[in-house]
């Protein structure tokens, strides 16, 4: 199992391994008591079929008896940030306690004073390159962008980004979010720019925007947010989305239709998502306990069950704590070998260009 795990982890060369000991620490009795006294937690943008969150939320509620208010499951990272800003003085269930956002959104949220620091008990096993030194945000899982394909409609799946421009895929290709607010969609634009030879950052962002301008002009781009339902219905038979979402849809749809998950040959974009606690969290102790749950062995394996690579994967694999049957359900390790992990500076640079220029360059209002 560990040999396979080591091969699978070839994609993480850009993320340094920090320590291999598996922390067995449990949340303190004081934290558990304080969280239970608050009685509830408010999350946002956590669809149950995203990274195994449905099971993770259920296990948290069952373990601690804390009510979970779930806001806007289909929100993008930008929407999560706006929800904090709009509810600074709100102590009710419309104010998120925690957020799960794309990497670049974590750093900007800290700069804007929207987060508060907290270091989980397994802190040392989170790579330094995937966490804020002060504990304001830290990576929870990662995946790579893939093409999710409805095989009942698309007989020959696209194998690379340029294939999407073929006339065979007229009115077929959708993003899984709004590129003006969704980290997933922003990274898709960034990825195709890299595939076209752009340097990660602003250069790739501009090349990616030009690609989507072409895709839209050819009539291949569908300006709606692609989901499992739209894929199955055939309105968006090709959706550019995280590999873990596509694999989860494959299981959920159970062959109706058959789903193909294709990791492109070039521009394999890896994306780390991060957790943070709102600086204005109405339930700060429940938020801290939620973080402890996510970064425990149980929570991290919960992410892997949802086909996401948990951030503590390296340490847990070295300790033999990753079930072999979960590894075998993932795409071949070779598919991930060329994955690119842009730096936070490159991500912020690309995000600024894409969110600002999407309307003027591409001219497709994604809804």
Automatic annotation (TrEMBL):
<feature type="signal peptide">
    <location>
        <begin position="1"/>
        <end position="23"/>
    </location>
</feature>
<keyword id="KW-0732">Signal</keyword>
<dbReference type="Pfam" id="PF13343">
    <property type="entry name" value="SBP_bac_6"/>
</dbReference>
<protein>
    <submittedName>
        <fullName>ABC transporter substrate-binding protein</fullName>
    </submittedName>
</protein>
């Amino acid at each position: 199992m560990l040999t396979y795990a080591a091969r699978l982890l070839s994609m993480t060369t850009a993320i340094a391994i920090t320590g291999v000991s598996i922390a067995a620490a449990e949340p303190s009795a004081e934290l558990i008591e304080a969280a239970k006294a608050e009685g509830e937690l408010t999350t946002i943008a956590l669809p149950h079929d995203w990274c195994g969150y449905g099971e993770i939320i259920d296990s948290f509620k069952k373990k601690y008896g804390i009510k979970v208010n779930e806001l806007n499951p289909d929100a993008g990272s930008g929407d999560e940030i706006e929800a904090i800003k709009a509810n600074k003085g709100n102590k009710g269930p419309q104010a998120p306690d925690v957020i799960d956002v794309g990497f670049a959104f974590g750093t900007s949220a800290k700069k804007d004073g929207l987060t508060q620091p907290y270091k989980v008990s397994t802190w040392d096993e989170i790579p330094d390159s995937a966490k804020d030194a002060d504990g304001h945000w830290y990576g929870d899982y990662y995946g790579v962008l893939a093409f999710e394909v409805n095989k009942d409609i698309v007989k020959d799946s696209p194998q690379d980004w340029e294939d999407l421009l073929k006339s065979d895929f007229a009115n077929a290709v959708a993003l899984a979010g709004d590129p003006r607010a969704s980290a997933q969609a922003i990274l898709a634009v960034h990825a195709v720019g890299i595939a076209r030879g752009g340097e990660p950052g602003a250069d790739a962002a501009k090349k990616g925007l030009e690609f989507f301008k072409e895709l839209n002009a050819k009539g291949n781009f569908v300006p709606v947010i692609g989901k499992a339902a739209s894929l199955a219905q055939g309105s968006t038979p090709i959706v550019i989305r995280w590999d873990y979402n596509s694999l989860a849809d494959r299981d959920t749809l159970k062959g109706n239709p058959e789903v193909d998950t294709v990791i492109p040959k070039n521009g394999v974009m890896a994306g780390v998502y991060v957790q943070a606690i709102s600086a204005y969290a109405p339930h700060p102790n429940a938020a801290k306990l939620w973080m402890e749950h996510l970064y425990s062995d149980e929570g991290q394996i919960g992410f892997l069950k949802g086909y996401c690579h948990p951030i503590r994967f390296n340490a847990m694999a070295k300790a033999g704590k990753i079930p072999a049957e979960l590894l075998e359900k993932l795409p071949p390790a070779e598919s991930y070998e060329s994955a690119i992990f842009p730096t936070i500076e490159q991500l912020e640079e690309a995000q600024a260009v894409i969110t600002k220029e999407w309307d003027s360059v591409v001219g497709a209002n994604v809804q």
